[in-house]
Amino acid sequence: MEQLKNQTLLASVLIDGKGQQVFNPFDNSLLGTVAMSCQAKIEQDVLDLEIGQKAWQKKPAAERCRFLKKWHQLILENEDDLAMLITLECGKPLKEALGEVRYGASFIEWFAEEGRRAYGSTIPSATNDRTLLTVKQAVGVAAAITPWNFPLAMITRKGAPALAAGCSFICKPSELTPLTAFAVTELAYQAGIPKDVLRMVVGESAHDVGEVFTYHSSVRKFSFTGSTLVGRKLQMQCASTIKRTSMELGGNAPFIVFDDADIDHAVKGAIASKFRNAGQTCVCANRFYVQDAVYDEFIDKLVAEVDKLKVGNGLDESTDIGPVITKEAKKRLLDLIEEAKGRGAKQVNKDVQLEGQFVAPTVLVDVEHDRPIVQGEIFGPILPIIRFEHEDEMIAMANDTIYGLAAYFYSQDMNRIWRVAHNLEYGMVGVNEGVISTEVAPFGGVKQSGNGKEGAKEGLEEYLETKYVCIGGLER
Ligand code: ADP
Q: Which of 230, 284, 324, 403 to mutate to test the pocket of ligand 1 (most atoms within 8 A of CB)?
């Protein structure tokens, strides 16, 4: 970690002894080791945060806003170091990592400001002797579990609204990417956010931490980003104490190109949507549907662009696609390609086999709709394409999934744009855009992609209770 300009970022985190080892997916070299907490220690953390939350909640929103703005500023001042850490432990190209740092920081600035606008309301009473009102209050201790594909932004997208609302916040980052998480937490402490208001923990196992976060009655809110499989289990665990939950789970985003689309624009959007973080995001375009009349043109233009993409070390400036996160991920992706090819799918771009933890971008046509590559979440740089004729049949295929996170389509026809946007059963729809996430708009899915929203004004509500106050016995 001697590459870091700011050596304070990880000074109190890296240990020599036994702990969670963190590896670089580019070459599997050891980046460092961080301490692991046992369940009893994490339970104590929760109790500390319960006390800390009481004082934090009492601070005026304007004061919490100042702490958050300072944190935001420190993140931007350290953006090169944070981007480097993201690339080292997660593999994404440095330019994307820098984008993530800025995107992640934007949630802190946004919620610093939104926290000052946690308005309640007054309600006209049916009788003159009462005044009815609502006030917004912090939920209490909030706990979160975050994934490795956005080691920084998934933490700030949950932590910033929690802190702005007056909650305390404890988070378990992915064991694959804890360094960025600890570095960004250190900056929060340097900004003056108290240690009994914000904590980052790595447990002896993810399961252990999950148990404390979901079963402990002092945790009042649980927020998770990860797979639907794990989310489903954690949501059930949360039922034991009737916790508020937000679940950002898997996706299976359709990317639809209608025959009235601007094809050059659609190709650009497809590349941006599919290959970000080597295809390892829950909103990456997963399966492509292209209408008959533009099918050949779209594929020719797409393949020309895909074959220009450079796969390599995320630290090299020219890299477009970094390594995939683990050896197991690579094997799973190669198996998916084999399975599809075994059922008649054909690869139409350059077929390259890469050594190391890399998967070359792969464009497949003649893919059957019922194959795992279409039905499941790929989470890799594979782009399966299906030809379609009619809009109705297309919408039915797009909605034929347990997921409902993001969907994308390209069309220039205003009637179609409204109709299709309305008919897609997804929490987010990109029309003529392949990358749509922003701190000002609500991110979240429907169906088994989860519940709750992150970002926007809705993101703050996830950490607030609405309390109704009735003042009676009044004389008017
Ligand atoms: P992904 O496939 O993106 O890694 P996971 O759902 O496996 O998705 O992981 C997302 C987060 O959930 C990670 O922080 C991981 O450590 C955590 N996790 C995985 N299994 C469990 C579990 N049984 N209990 C609690 N957390 C878990």
A: 230
